DNA sequence: TCACTCACGGCATTTTATGCTGCAATCTCG
DNA sequence: CGAGATTGCAGCATAAAATGCCGTGAGTGA
């Protein structure tokens, strides 16, 4: 499946507003509702759209802390990576897991209720003996901005 | 405005599926459609829900690189932070900006088409003279998982 | 030029959203 | 304790949207 400009525009608009009605979306991309809906369905089926989600202002619900953690593993066999990833994925508070640089380190993104919660989770991970050698924490004081959308506009022709 | 368990459940479900129909959502939270819709509207109006977006599999559209960059500023007056943030926000490829640790450093998240694009953007930022002292790049080789939802489940009673 | 394919627009039907009305539970203040 | 007020609910009716079907026109290759 190959995407044309209209598909890219659809992706762009759906990133900005995932709950736009098909009728409105069709107007924005200059199509009538039917073919527009057909394209959206195809984009979903082909995996270009993996889901939709509401952006929740977590901070309004109560105190929250975001922490980025750089983790180094003791060993670097495939088994070691797999074990660590599986353990990390099960932790609800770890919302992102990235393998960085030369492939020996992970960068994790945590969201927890407090620094105490974060420490408790990290201690639990250490005790679980999933191959963590050492880690370094970047505690987020403030997030001036977090854009909910990816730079489709600059990366692809529209 | 105070939220009860049902509101939290609504937020949770809308995070998992932002395009769920009101009828289905109502069933999941054990309400009839009317009061359910009323609550969603209130959550939006009160700012607990800041928007909806489609998750786009950017990697399927073409090659992409994600980079986390730690940036240190030369000076640390309010003016210096403001200038940097305003410049960073205008760069489409910078999708997150976090102020970390003691308040002197930023952690940025970039998404670009290639390492070359990333370098070009960084060089442009340096040349713009917005107070960047030095920076360190964490290039993402692979992202084992990125969860689209926040840990509402563990942080709040449901 | 003609047959074929593909994508579109328009229309009809089904599904969903949305506003209204009345009822039940809870709260409050005598 | 008890009566009125408040809050939040379900059910219903109407408006809006999604969805499937069909005919049409542009582009392609023989």
UniProtKB/TrEMBL annotation, chains A, B:
Name of the molecule in the record: Probable transcriptional regulator protein (Leucine-responsive), AsnC family protein
GO cellular component, one term: cytosol
Domain of life of the organism encoding this protein: Bacteria
InterPro entries: ArsR-like_HTH, AsnC-type_HTH_dom, Dimeric_a/b-barrel, Tscrpt_reg_AsnC-like, Tscrpt_reg_AsnC/Lrp_C, WH-like_DNA-bd_sf, WH_DNA-bd_sf
Keyword DNA-binding attributed: yes
Keyword Transcription: yes
Annotated SUPFAM superfamilies: Dimeric alpha+beta barrel (SSF54909), Winged helix' DNA-binding domain (SSF46785)
Pfam families on file: AsnC_trans_reg (PF01037), HTH_24 (PF13412)
GO MF term set: sequence-specific DNA binding
Keywords, sorted A to Z: DNA-binding, Transcription, Transcription regulation
One GO BP annotation of this record: regulation of DNA-templated transcription
All residue ranges annotated as the HTH asnC-type domain in the record: 3-64
PANTHER family, per database record: LEUCINE-RESPONSIVE REGULATORY PROTEIN, TRANSCRIPTIONAL REGULATOR AZLB
């Amino acid at each position: 499946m190959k995407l044309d400009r209209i598909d890219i525009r659809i992706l762009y608009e759906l990133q900005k507003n995932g709950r736009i009605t098909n009728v409105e979306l069709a107007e924005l991309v200059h199509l009538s509702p039917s073919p527009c809906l057909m394209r959206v369905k195809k984009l979903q089926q082909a995996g270009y759209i993996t889901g939709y989600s509401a952006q929740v202002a977590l901070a309004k619900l109560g105190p929250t802390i975001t922490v980025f953690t750089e983790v180094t593993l003791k060993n670097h066999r495939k088994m070691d990576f797999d074990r660590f990833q599986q353990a990390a994925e099960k932790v609800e508070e770890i919302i992102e897991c990235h393998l960085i640089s030369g492939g020996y380190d992970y960068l994790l993104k945590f969201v927890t209720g407090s620094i105490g919660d974060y420490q408790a989770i990290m201690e639990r991970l250490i005790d679980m003996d999933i191959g963590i050698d050492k880690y370094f924490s970047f505690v987020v004081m403030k997030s001036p901005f977090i854009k909910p959308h990816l730079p489709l506009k600059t990366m692809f022709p529209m």
